[in-house]
Amino acid sequence: MKRHNALIPLSHDHHHGLLLSQLLKKDAPKYKGLPDSTQGKIDYLDSAYKTELIPHFKNEEEILFPFVRGKDANLDALIDEVLEQHIRIEQLYAQVKTSGDKILAMNDFALLLDQHIRLEEREVLPLIQELFDDQLEELNGKIVAVKSDDACET
Ligand SMILES: [Fe+2]
Ligand SMILES: [Fe+2]
């Protein structure tokens, strides 16, 4: 299903989120132009968390989800699930700071982020498009991708 215009910025962010997740997995290969050391990855995660993930979650929590909530029980249940994942992702991010095993902590974070993005891309956004088709026009331009990147086609 082609992503609705109003939701394209979120899918754009998801693309970057999946790349972040790949980088942080414990068996990750080297990615050109991205950090390879454990500390380099922690710093990269720190920056991406603050400048990309927090504003992305905010767009979902404060703009998209309130707009679509309360009209469909299945969608509401899915939204509850992804909101719980946001909290869990935040906890796993905090755990990277405190954990004695940074590689494992980053891997745990990466696995959940991956699962979370796939749930939103495969189930949440398609259901929102199905249920709110025309009304999504109202959100056009209100959600802005958190990272500008013209080379990214999502
Ligand atoms: Fe999310
Ligand atoms: Fe998302």
Description:
The chain is mainly alpha-helical. The chain has one domain. Helices cover 68% and strands 0% of the residues. It is built from 4 helices and no strands. Helix 1 runs antiparallel to helix 2 and helix 1 packs antiparallel against helix 4. The chain is elongated, with a radius of gyration of 16 Å. Bound molecules: fe (ii) ion (2 copies). The site of one fe (ii) ion (FE2) has 5 residues, from helix 1 and helix 2.
Gyration radius, rounded: 16 Å
What is the number of independent domains? 1
Report the major sheet. none
Number of H/I helices: 4
The N- to C-terminal Cα distance equals 12 Å
Shape: elongated
The number of E-state strands comes to 0
The percent of residues in helical segments reads 55-70%
- Structural class by secondary-structure content: mainly alpha
Uncertain segments:
none
Report the average pLDDT across residues.
Answer: 95
Question: Which small compounds were modeled alongside the protein?
Answer: fe (ii) ion
The run of helices and strands is: HHHH
- What fraction strand? under 5%
Annotate the secondary structure layout.
Layout: H1 8-24, H2 38-68, H3 73-98, H4 102-132
The structure holds fe (ii) ion (2 copies).
